[in-house]
């Protein structure tokens, strides 16, 4: 073989290796871009859901028969509020509030529970009003403070006094 022919073959091999490396690199970059796009889409979807989630305080009272404060809240947003039982609830008075866990089993001391009117599915649909029963076993002076923060971060809070 002549020297010119080996140079052509060497250049052709280098060109093939270069094209293969470029294809591998672009494939890796495109897969990363696709993963980033997927994560971004999920984040934007969650943000849109959170923006449509809006709760408002309606009314609060004390129920002597259940030994609980009852706070009524309404979904005035355009999206349902899912997994309400995973929300964070704080209760107290103007001097301070304490975290209350969700009631489990028959335990009804220093906890809260969701009571739905109609279909009990753990979801607060748009225009639905629900009751939050707060079982507080410690003495507390009014005015009372309540705050609920949904798993998506939507807050609803109120300061109230119970008469009667």
Please give a structural write-up.
- This protein is of the alpha+beta class and 164 residues long.
- It has two domains: 1-51; 55-160, Immunoglobulin-like (Sandwich), CATH 2.60.40.
- Helices cover 30% and strands 32% of the residues.
- It is built from one helix and eight strands, in the order H-E-E-E-E-E-E-E-E.
- It has one helix at 3-51, and strands at 55-63, 68-75, 88-93, 96-100, 111-116, 129-135, 144-149, 155-160.
- The chain is rod-shaped.
- The model has no long low-confidence stretch (mean pLDDT 86).
CATH architecture of the largest domain: Sandwich
Number of domains: 2
Rounded mean pLDDT is 86
Name the overall outline: rod-shaped
SSE layout:
Blueprint: H1 3-51, E1 55-63, E2 68-75, E3 88-93, E4 96-100, E5 111-116, E6 129-135, E7 144-149, E8 155-160
Antiparallel strand pairs: 1-2, 2-6, 3-4, 3-7, 5-6, 7-8
Nutshell version of this structure?
Helix content is 30%, strand content 32%. It is of the alpha+beta class. The longest helix is centred in the N-terminal third of the chain and has 49 residues, at 3-51.
Task: Give descriptors for this structure.
Immunoglobulin-like; alpha+beta; single chain; 8 strands; 2 domains; 1 helix; 32% strand; 164 residues; 4-stranded antiparallel beta sheet
């Amino acid at each position: 073989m002549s020297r010119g022919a080996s140079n052509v073959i060497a250049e052709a091999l280098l060109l093939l290796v270069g094209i293969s490396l470029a294809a591998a690199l672009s494939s890796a970059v495109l897969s990363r871009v696709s993963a980033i796009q997927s994560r971004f889409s999920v984040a934007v979807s969650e943000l849109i859901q959170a923006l449509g989630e809006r709760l408002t305080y309606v009314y609060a009272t004390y129920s002597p028969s259940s030994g609980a404060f009852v706070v009524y809240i309404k979904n005035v947003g355009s999206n349902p509020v899912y997994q309400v039982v995973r929300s964070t609830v704080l209760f107290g008075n103007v001097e301070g509030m304490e975290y209350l866990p969700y009631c489990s089993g028959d335990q009804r001391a220093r906890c809260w529970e969701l009571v739905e009117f109609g279909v009990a599915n753990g979801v607060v649909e748009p225009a639905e009003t629900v009751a939050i029963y707060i079982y507080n076993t410690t003495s507390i002076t009014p005015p009372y403070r309540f705050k609920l923060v949904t798993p998506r971060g939507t807050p609803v809070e109120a300061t109230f006094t119970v008469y009667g």
